[in-house]
Amino acid sequence: MRYHEDRSVKAFIHFCQHGQQQMFREMKQQIHGFSYHFWNSKVPKLNKYKKKSDPDPLTLIREEDRPSVLSTIEAIERFVLCSEISMGIIQMSALNSAFVEMIERHRYLRTSHKGKVSESTVIDYLRKHFFRLLFLNRHSHISRLILSMQEPSFEEDKSA
User: Fold this and answer.
1) CA 106/CA 155 separation, integer angstroms
2) Residues ≥6 apart with Cβ < 8 Å to 134
């Protein structure tokens, strides 16, 4: 009995690790969640061939440069967090049956999906139809937020 329990725990751990690898791959390839370009000249470059006797590059940062370096690191963390949130929204959309039906109407799926679609299918659909969906749902919260942040066009100023 003990061996059976141990096997199921190992299977569960393997399943979780596989899921993390898939999530990392999708986030890297589909969302480009690690494609940030936040760099600061005060951040020391990584030396892959560093010797053990070489000083730690973080100790070389001057005290007056630390706030700038910390803000760069914070920007990277925020970018990756936004990527993770968008990946979660995409995964939730891929499991939503109403969203899957909408994708079926606009895209040919050559394999049986059994009520679920892949993250890449959702991303491709949103890439092609996002602005059309915003136009159709002008009174949604996100549409109103985007419109409030845009500058008024010339024709709107002329008519007012």
Assistant:
1) 33
2) 140, 142, 143, 146
